[in-house]
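Technical annex, item 7. During the second reporting period the consortium partners agreed on a shared format for inverse folding records so that results from different sites could be compared directly. Each record opens with the tokenized structure and is followed by the designed sequence. A conforming record, contributed by the partner at site C, is shown below for reference.
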């Protein structure tokens, strides 16, 4: 399986090729998420964040593939609004319940369900429950937990470097880790289709 270091390298080259549109999508996602979070005591975020996460996941996968996403692709999730809402509620409930039980189960749940919106945007044949199950299968059943955890640490490291660069580096770091997220899903999916392979933590 492609290592996380290699995913980061591919993501960096993909970002350089589509930097402007990727940056615009990251800003759009951040602004809308912030607005929704302050609307109706968080009700706006609860209702619409799933649809936006669906579209953002799709565009980042496209960037990783070397494609140039259209801005309107970001809103594709509203075509599957009910499924995105159910995914948001399911993932939120499962992670919160896990956190209540000594925190560690919540981390386990968060890792296992981290690919839900990537799966949902990629698989029209799956509903919300199917996407949740498929994310869990890709991460846990297929033995990719350490890979996903390793990418989480790598993401934090990239963000830290961006913050240390007088904060200006975050304008590069955040788009980069966004593309890396799409790349992680692509490589996990590819390995699953090809029958697995050695899992790389780094």
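Designed sequence (site C submission):
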């Amino acid at each position: 399986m492609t290592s996380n270091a290699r995913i980061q390298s591919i993501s960096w080259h993909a970002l350089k090729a589509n930097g402007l549109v990727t940056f615009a999508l990251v800003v759009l996602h951040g602004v809308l998420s912030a607005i929704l979070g302050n609307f109706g005591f968080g009700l706006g975020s609860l209702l619409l964040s799933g649809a936006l996460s669906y579209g953002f996941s799709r565009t980042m996968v496209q960037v990783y593939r070397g494609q140039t996403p259209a801005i309107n692709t970001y809103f594709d999730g509203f075509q599957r609004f009910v499924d995105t809402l159910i995914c948001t509620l399911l993932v939120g409930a499962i992670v919160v319940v896990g956190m209540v039980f000594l925190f560690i189960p919540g981390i386990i749940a968060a890792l296992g369900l981290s690919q839900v919106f990537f799966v949902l945007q990629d698989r029209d044949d799956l509903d919300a429950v199917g996407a949740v199950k498929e994310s869990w299968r890709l991460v846990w059943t297929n033995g990719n937990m350490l890979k996903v955890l390793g990418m989480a640490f790598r993401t934090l490291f990239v963000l830290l470097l961006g913050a240390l660069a007088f904060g200006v580096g975050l304008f590069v770091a955040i788009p980069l880790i966004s593309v890396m997220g799409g790349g992680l899903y692509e490589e996990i999916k590819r390995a699953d289709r090809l029958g697995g392979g050695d899992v790389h933590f780094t």
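Residues 4-191 form one domain. The chain has a mean pLDDT of 94. All partners now use this format for quarterly exchanges.
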